[in-house]
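Final report, closing paragraph on structural work. Over the funding period we assembled a curated collection of sequence-structure pairs, and we close with a single example.
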Amino acid sequence: MYLDEEIFNSEFNERTAKERAKNYMRLKDGYKEPNDKYVQSVISKIAERSQIGFIKYGTNLERKDLNVLDWINHAQEEAMDLALYLEVIKEKIKKLT
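Its predicted structure, as stored:
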């Protein structure tokens, strides 16, 4: 997954993150579990990623130290990574056919 060695070796782990995310979602006022396993999976992964990011970087997306261009640059970097991942997947699929 996206756990690096530093985080993996800490007391925090993927299972802990998933449990925390589930507990948080259950406690939220008026929250109803989605009746869709894919939506549930994405919600859990987003919550887990948020916890891991906070541990790794010591902040969350509510940070005030980035301006709009910084956020755009971060988004571009993520989009470029996505394009690379998709290219690798395409090549792997081609080799299977």
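The chain has a mean pLDDT of 83. The two ends are 26 Å apart (CA to CA). We thank the funder for supporting this effort.
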